[in-house]
Amino acid sequence: MDTLLLAVKILVTLLVAILFVQNIALVEVRFLTWSMELPLALLLLVIYVLGMVSGKALFHLLSRLRNRHPRH
């Protein structure tokens, strides 16, 4: 089982590395009056991390609200 998990981790790492190497082209990101150019791979990484952080924060908030008001 440990060998299978290691193989899956290596495969995912290789796929992420391929994604980054193939997406190094610069893209322009604009938000309101703010604008900047950065590699597409970096943009994808930033969006992924922001999604993880906001998802965890939302999950934490919802669980706190659920524990604060128990159902009858």
Structure characterization notes:
By secondary structure, this protein is of the alpha+beta class. The protein contains two helices and two strands, in the order H-E-E-H. The protein is 69% helix and 17% strand. The chain has one domain. Strand 1 and strand 2 form a beta hairpin. The chain has a two-stranded antiparallel ribbon with strand order 1-2. Keywords: Cell membrane, Membrane, Transmembrane, Transmembrane helix. This is DUF1049 domain-containing protein.
Offer a quick outline of the entry.
The chain has 72 residues and is α+β, with helices and mostly antiparallel strands. Helix content is 69%, strand content 17%. It holds the Pfam family LapA_dom.
SSE map:
Blueprint: H1 2-22, E1 26-31, E2 34-39, H2 40-68
Antiparallel strand pairs: 1-2
**Structural domain tally:** 1
- Average pLDDT, to the nearest integer? 89
Number of continuous helical runs: 2
How far is it from the N-terminal to the C-terminal residue, by CA?
43 Å
**Could you state the order of secondary-structure elements as H and E?**
HEEH
Could you give the count of β-strands?
2
Quick tags:
69% helix, cell membrane, 72 residues, alpha+beta, two-stranded antiparallel sheet
